[in-house]
Specification:
The chain is mostly helical. The chain has one domain (24-185). The chain is built from five helices and two strands; from the N terminus they run αααααββ. It is elongated and about 75 Å long.
Amino acid sequence: MDFEPKLMLEGTGALLLGASPTRLPEDRVEQCKAALVQAEQRAADSEQLFKEGVLAKVEVEACFLRIVQRKKELADAMVEVAQGRVDATAKAFSARGATQADLDATNADLKADQTAAGAASAAWDKAQLDAAVLDLQRKQKLYSEGVGSKHEVQVAEDRVALLSGGGRFEIRNQKSEGEESNIAPATVATPDPR
């Protein structure tokens, strides 16, 4: 018994032809705000599930990392909207439809949004690096206890090195219990350009 399934692609003719739907920057801001609220709710829920013993701490940390990522995405979207406003005001100014004060105000808003986006980007970079270092410490501990593999440690070290923008990192575990690990950048030999 053969039958053809119904295609569920109604209203996507433009997508099938290769054209992308036009998304306004304001729509992206709203979408990013909704994603941020959702990420915050998930993080709160996951924290409660961690306290109840249902989720692992790593999963909760991933939820909080996602909040920082969503904040960065929102800040970037707000810069895009502000840039669009500056462009529109500049066009209106050149057509004598806007004043210099209007142009200055939109430029000031853009600068403030760019500053906020820079701070959000720095927070995202720091959060990623912190998460990678914590992951590396966990992988090294598992390896030292004979549970993890050397490859997992090397992958984690490479991720820390990539995120830090430097060479390989070594985390030296202290022999005594209860002491924190020290993070120190290892020296990296630069490859010969020949």
